[in-house]
User: Fold Putative gnat family from Diplodia seriata.
Amino acid sequence: MQLSHKRLVDIYFAAFSRNAFGSAVFPDAPAVRQWWIDTLSRELQHQKGVAMYNLVEYADGTDTPVFANEQKHKNIVAFAKWLRPMEEGPDSTEAAIEIQTEEPLPAGCDQELFTRYFAELNRRHKACMGTRAHWYLELLATHPSHQRRGAASALVNHVLGSDDYGNPANVNANYDAYLEASPEGLSTYRRLGFEKRDGFNVEIEGKPYETLMMVRPAAGKREKTGNGEQEKEKT
Assistant:
């Protein structure tokens, strides 16, 4: 399991190497990578409602992503960490979605920015979704060598279904879905049915860093936009 977690962390750092927030809070250093490996391992075992989906190498001669299976030799190229919908209750939605900020980060990380940013992220998430059950896409990362090849679409549609406006064959589509995104991911997630609901900025090295709150309404709540244009993925 540790080997696959290491690969996920490798993908994370490759995907977010030019991200201002990621570079400031999680600089690419051995201790920080180990923190990520340990955190993923702990959360996948103990976090309520957690679900991880991995994409492996594309089949030879095709552009079709394949989901990870028991073939250990396959190379993971993208992954998504979701939290499943949980019904309202004292130990359900609110407790599960809140990202913990108390644990100290390794040396070299910006602890103050981490705490301030995720406190605001938690607040905005709760303001957008309240306590109603919903899917939460907590993290999606694609290795740069496989970006713009449909990985984000595959990882989202695998969980939520791709039948956006008709009869939702996928029962998961009956729930709202929520995520946070950078402006670079806006067009990709809009094409997948998400709508911008909120956003905020934090200052990093004197420059604003924007984060968007996006919601994909449950299938019965959505309306066709009439916009069928295809856009390249940036996630």
In short: The radius of gyration is 17 Å. The longest strand covers residues 195-204.
